[in-house]
């Protein structure tokens, strides 16, 4: 229930909800239990329904596809934590207060955009997911100003974690591709 109330408030009353979040006494594990787990469960359910309607991912059976879905959304918790570490590390550069818990709050509650993108994904209209990325930047911008107290270049501060994480994802994917290529084709 907390999940739906918070999601609605972040969507319709963003500034007020960030003020409530700022003053909230919580922990990362409590945020996972009361908020993030519902996004993960919802995504797994939607992916499972899609898999049974459309079929498993290409080249995979149903069990492998389900394992992939659960793995991806479990690793997503790591993404949120790394995003929070980046926000906390960059805080002094953007005139914000360095506070790991507040950075975790921002990273975690901005993930409400994932919930929105899952819902938008159900509609067969191209590029609706791009709206959720824009909303992520807007939400993070508001959160950084209110929760972290950012005073300088808050928009850039909101963009940096995504730029860094996308770059890291590309590097990791390339390294993984190279390793897999050498394992599968040792004669190269």
Explain this structure.
This protein has 188 residues and is mainly alpha-helical. It has one domain (2-184). The protein has helices spanning 2-12, 14-23, 28-54, 62-90, 100-109, 112-121, 128-146, 154-184. Helix 1 packs across helix 2 (14-23), helix 3 (28-54) runs parallel beside helix 5 and helix 7 packs across helix 8 (154-184). The longest helix has 31 residues, at 154-184. The chain is globular.
How many domain regions?
1
The biggest sheet amounts to:
none
State mean pLDDT (0 to 100 scale): 81
Shape: globular
Indicate the proportion of strand residues. under 5%
Q: Which segments are poorly predicted (pLDDT under 50) over 5 or more consecutive residues?
A: none
Helix content: over 70%
The assigned structural class equals mainly alpha
Distance between the termini: 55 Å
Give the oligomeric state. single chain
List keywords for this structure.
mainly alpha, 78% helix, 188 residues
Structure in a nutshell:
The protein has 188 residues and is an all-alpha fold. It is 78% helix and 0% strand.
Which helices and strands appear, and what pairs or packs with what?
Blueprint: H1 2-12, H2 14-23, H3 28-54, H4 62-90, H5 100-109, H6 112-121, H7 128-146, H8 154-184
């Amino acid at each position: 229930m907390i999940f739906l109330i918070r999601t609605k408030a972040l969507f319709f009353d963003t500034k007020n909800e960030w003020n409530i979040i700022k003053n909230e006494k919580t922990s990362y594990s409590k945020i996972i239990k009361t908020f993030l787990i519902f996004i993960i469960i919802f995504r797994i359910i939607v992916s499972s329904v899609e898999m049974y309607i459309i079929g498993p991912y290409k080249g995979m059976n149903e069990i492998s596809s389900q394992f992939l879905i659960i793995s991806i959304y479990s690793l997503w918790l790591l993404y949120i934590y790394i995003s929070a570490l980046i926000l906390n590390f960059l805080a002094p550069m953007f005139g914000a207060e360095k506070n790991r818990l507040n950075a975790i709050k921002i990273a975690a509650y901005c993930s409400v955009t994932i919930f929105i993108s899952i819902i938008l994904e159900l509609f067969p209209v191209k590029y609706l997911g791009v709206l959720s990325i824009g909303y992520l930047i807007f939400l993070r911008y508001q959160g950084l100003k209110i929760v972290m107290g950012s005073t300088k270049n808050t928009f850039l501060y909101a963009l940096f974690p995504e730029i860094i994480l996308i770059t890291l994802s590309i590097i990791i994917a390339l390294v993984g591709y190279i390793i897999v290529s050498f394992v599968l084709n040792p004669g190269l």
